[in-house]
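Fold it.
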Amino acid sequence: MWLMAMFDLPVKSKAQKRSYTRFRKHLLNQGFCKLQYSVYARHCPSEDSASHYRDSVARELPSEGQVRLMSITDRQFGKMQVFVGEMSVATESAPVQLMLF
C-alpha cells in the first residue's frame, strides 16, 4: 500500500517557513518521496507499517496549515495516470522488498 501525505502550509513569515521546512524534511527522512508540490508518498508493506508512519507524521504536524494522509493500494496507485505536458509517463514503482524466511 502507499501512504500519501498532502499538505497546505503557510509560508509568509520566517517561523512558518521554518515549520514548513522541518515538516517536509521529516517526510523525506521517513522515506516519503515527492510526487508533486506538497504531495508526498511512501510505500508501506502492510497496514501496520502504514500506521507507524501515520503516527510519525502526526507527531510532527505544524501548528498551522492543513495536512491530509490517505492510504491507497498498490493496484490503485498503479492505475494513476501521470501527464507531463501532453505526454504520459509511468508512475513510480514500489521499492524492491526482501523476504527473509
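The beta strands are 2-8, 33-36, 39-43, 66-72, 82-84, 87-89.
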